[in-house]
Design brief:
It comes from Caballeronia ptereochthonis. The protein has 330 residues and is an alpha/beta fold. The chain is built from nine helices and 14 strands. The strands form three sheets. Strands 2-1-3-4-5-6-9-10 form an eight-stranded mixed sheet. A four-stranded parallel sheet has the order 11-12-13-14, sandwiched between helices. A two-stranded antiparallel ribbon has the order 7-8. The model has no long low-confidence stretch (mean pLDDT 95).
């Protein structure tokens, strides 16, 4: 087979369970994440050579629970640099599942290219029986090599499904089908080399986004509302110099009365406050005169608290203050 005509895809490895290793192949817990290097990941999937010409880089070797904003900056800028090259047709990022949805959304808003960027991961370490990483990696490269994936923003290929980075979230602690897009559903599927998209992305992203990663990220934290919540966390964060707070509220972003007063005080001190929901699906409506207009808070819409934090960090880091417009747009 003449492979010179195949797309050239950059595979950037960051660690995670997909690069995990355990002493017992029958165990899917108790492994060490990020141990296996990108070359070994690729060697385990010889069929990749039939799909694309691969350029591989090891960007990090971490458990994704330890993802940092500094690594986000490094990753976003490296992807931009690679996609600016004429001989790179797309990028695949291997990642841990724990914070994949946050990294994917961050890249969705900061990468400045319409070429495909696809994240993938695994729920079982590479040494496990029936490891899911090799097929997920093959499918991710297949999606990145597809002309149909261009212009759709950052994608997540997992368990034969293709998700938008904006919508996807982890919904299981153990299942190989751990990722879902609860409110909107998948974009399409990839199976046996076939890539099919059944819908597209309408909100602005990547080259149409107004954001860029920063050297210094503003401090934005998340607090939750629950029965008998206190104001201790909010007051401590304000004293520590936090620039923004996202609330994982109950129901439609509602907040305990004590927490509401603490957040109102925080807003008066210049802290941006965004209401999201801890529920897992649905959207948070802007309450207008009933809440947001009085308190000075912002509705996160359909973003979960963790993605709302990503967007708030980018907005504050870019010096933007029309936050409700930002959340309504992205």
């Amino acid at each position: 087979m003449n492979t010179s005509s195949l797309p050239r895809i950059a595979v950037l490895a960051t660690g995670g369970t997909i690069a995990g290793q355990a002493g017992d192949a029958s165990k899917t817990a108790g492994y060490k994440a990020g141990v296996v290097g990108v070359d070994k990941l690729l060697d385990a999937v010889p069929a990749l050579g039939l799909v694309a010409r691969i350029h591989a880089e090891q960007i990090a070797s971490i458990d994704s629970k330890d993802m940092s904003a500094a690594l986000w900056t490094t990753l976003s800028r490296r992807i931009d640099a690679l996609l600016a090259q004429d001989d790179i047709d797309g990028v695949v990022v291997t990642h841990g599942t724990d914070t994949l949805e946050e990294t994917a959304y961050l890249l969705h808003l900061t990468v400045k290219s319409t070429k495909p960027v696809v994240l993938t991961a695994a729920m079982r370490p590479s040494t496990a029986l029936s490891a899911d990483g090799p097929l997920n990696l093959l499918n991710a490269v297949t999606v990145a090599a597809s002309a149909d994936a261009a212009g759709k923003g950052v994608l997540v290929a997992f368990n034969n499904q293709i998700h938008s980075a904006r919508d996807v979230t982890k919904t299981s602690t153990y299942s190989v089908g751990a990722f879902r897009s609860p409110e909107t559903g998948v974009l399409g599927f990839v199976q046996d080399g076939r890539v099919e998209f059944q819908r597209t992305v309408v909100r602005p992203h990547t080259a149409a986004s107004e954001f860029a990663v920063a050297e210094q990220w503003p401090m934005v934290e998340i607090v939750a509302s629950y029965a008998d919540a206190s104001r201790v966390m909010v007051d401590a964060l304000v004293a520590a110099g936090v620039k923004g707070i996202v609330v994982a509220g109950t129901g439609n972003g509602s907040m305990h009365a004590t927490l509401t007063q603490a957040l109102a005080d925080a807003v008066k001190k210049g802290v941006a406050v965004v209401r999201a929901s801890r529920v897992g699906s649905g959207h948070v409506m802007r309450n207008g005169a009933a809440s947001d207009d009085v308190l000075g808070t912002v509705s996160a819409g359909t973003l979960n608290p963790y993605k709302a934090r990503v967007l708030l960090m980018l907005a504050l880091g870019s010096g933007l203050d029309d936050l409700q417009r930002i959340f309504d747009t992205y």
